[in-house]
Amino acid sequence: MNLNRRERLVPYLLILPFLLSFLLFFLIPSVYSFLLSFAKYPGYGDVKWVQFSNYSNILKYARFWEALRRTIFYWLVKFAPVTILSFLSAVCIHSRLMNRANRLYKPMLFLPQICATVATSLVFQVILAKKSGVINQLLGTEIGFIDNKTLSQYSVLLMMCWRAIGWYMVVYLAGLTTISDEINDAALIDGCNAWSKMLYITIPMMRQTFMFAFIMDAIGSLRIFTEPAVLTGTENLATQNAEGVINLLMMNIKGGNFGMASAYGWIVFVLIFAVSTMLLRLFKEREE
Q: Which residues fall within 8 angstroms of residue 183, CB to CB, at 6 or more apart?
């Protein structure tokens, strides 16, 4: 009896480190931040409960809606070029014609993902600077890629795409390996050309891979912070021209307004949850 009881306890002991870390570093902080979003708290002293005032103030704040618009802009505009370029790169590397060269091209395409985001932002800052930037020096111009209200958003978007293509190339490459070579050979015997095989065999059989990639891309885009914060500098007009919702969250943390920062965080959580649920339902309906 004691032996059976010990055997039943072994699985729980194995997952105990995860449960403790989940409780200490996720569940308790999440509940605490949710409660804090209904309060005004500078980090010391008494907590002043303000009910829904933080949320109502955010919804009345024009800068929040601008940041939300830019956050959705980064997600939607980034989606098409990253998906197309990363998928086509994966198809090319997976093809038999690239068997020898893929050892070179795979590391080259994945290299931007290895680079730290801050380091990448600083490099792009050198390339896109108005007076001393590499592009303006070569063209003999002074285009404000970072300072201009419109161009700053596209500068951030360019860097996001450059970093993301290599990562999603690996994701799609993993999806392509799940397709049996026998299916591709049978399609070629039946007279399918490369375009027909991709359209009617490869893409439908990679539906789950696309779903994973789309959801991960949405979550990453909606949580954008480092790229606009570092590329455009901090606490200036250029930052406001490119900032996302997370930038406002960090601004409130820096200002000691932890209740408002928690409210921003939960708004981002609701947005990510809604988008993820929408994508999951969309893919489920397509499968049915």
A: 201, 205
Helix or strand (DSSP H, E) at 39: strand 39-40
We find that the CATH architecture of domain 55-287 is Orthogonal Bundle (1.10)
Question: Mean pLDDT highest for which of 102-106, 127-131, 199-203, 266-270?
Answer: 266-270
Whether 261 and 249 have beta carbons less than 8 Å apart is answered as yes
Spatial separation of the C-alpha atoms in residues 166 and 170, rounded to whole Å: 7
pLDDT per position as a tens digit, 121-169: 888 988 988 888 889 888 888 888 888 878 888 989 999 999 999 999 9
How far is it, in rounded angstroms, from Cα 225 to Cα 230? 9
Contact call for residues 249 and 265 (beta carbons, < 8 A):
yes
Instruction: Provide the 8-state DSSP code for 116.
Output: -
Tell me, rounded to whole angstroms, the distance of Cα 45 from its chain centroid: 36
DSSP H or E run through 227: helix 226-231
Residues 6 or more apart from 90 whose CB is under 8 A from it? 169, 170, 171, 172, 173, 175, 176
**DSSP string for residues in 119-178:** HHHHHHHHHH-TTT-HHHHHHT----TTTSHHHHHHHHHHHHHHHHHHHHHHHHHHHHTT
Q: What is the DSSP letter of 26?
A: I
Q: How many helices (H) and strands (E) does the chain have?
A: 16, 2
**Contact indicator for 39, 47 with CB cutoff of 8 Å:** yes
Total-model pTM: 0.82
